[in-house]
Amino acid sequence: MNRNILFGEFVVKESVADIRGRLDHGAHCVQIDFTEGRLAVKLDPSGQLLSSFIALINRVLDQFNEEERKRIGAHTCPGGDCDSTQSADVDYSGLLPSFFSLDVGSFYMQLASELDRRRVLQIVREILHPPRRVFVGVIDPINPKVETPQEVRDRVLEASDFIPLIQLGTTDDCGFSPFGDDLSTARETAFAKIRARVEGTQLAVEQLG
After folding, report:
1. CA distances (Å), 134 to each of 8, 22, 46, 107, 166, in order?
2. Dmax over Cα atoms in the chain, in whole Å?
3. What pLDDT shows up at residue 191?
4. 83-98 pLDDT, tens digit each
5. Residue 7: predicted pLDDT
6. Of 38, 54, 32, 49, which is closest to residue 120 (Cα–Cα)?
7. With 0-12 CB in 10 A as exposed, 13-18 as middle and 19+ as buried, what is 160?
């Protein structure tokens, strides 16, 4: 059998086992990290590489029933390890239609560090269909400045102009330490940013009623 086919089967089998293990142990939601999404578009503008990734992830999702898929989410960002990105220059319009085709209950996407957030939110509004939810990034882990709750509130209010509240949530753009050897963000800074996200989201909830 072709080595690529064997490897694909191995990836699907191990991914399913990993996700199911977390669900069986009571995880509220299990995220699939798709940092490679925008990078795939950068490496192959034809979209074939992106399509192959989407197909592989959908093979994993096919192993779960509808209720289980509601507890699975997919995350995308242009990378964030060691305070660097690998595909921030890639337009979201080349990724999001394929990304939102994944059969998951929730999407988590980098947005706080995006240069034109409203343009991206307009794209999201056009292709995100209920009941699926999108958690937009309101915290930039790469920027050492800690956001204020008011800044986070304003980013949530901005997103609410485009996304129905029932489908809207907040998240961080990326992990604060995507890999074990990434010490670029201090623990105190990470927790301060998380605190700002929680407090800022609550301020937005109170204003939106």
Report:
1. 28, 21, 26, 5, 10
2. 59
3. 94
4. 567 677 889 999 999 9
5. 85
6. 38
7. middle
- Rounded to whole angstroms, the Cα distance separating 163 from 168 reads 6
* Helices and strands, number each (H, E), in the chain: 8, 5
Strand, coil or helix: what is 87?
A: coil
CB contact at 8 A, 177 and 183: yes
Tell me which residue has tokens 């242009």. 78
The larger pLDDT score, comparing residue 82 to residue 41, is at: 41
Note the pLDDT tens digit of each residue in 167-180: 999 999 988 775 55
Where in the chain are the domains? 3-208
Dihedral sign, Cα of residue 142, residue 146, residue 147, residue 149: positive
Q: For residue 181, what pLDDT band results from cuts at 50, 70 and 90?
A: low
Strand partners, 76: 109
Give 146's DSSP letter: P
CATH C-level class of 3-208: alpha beta
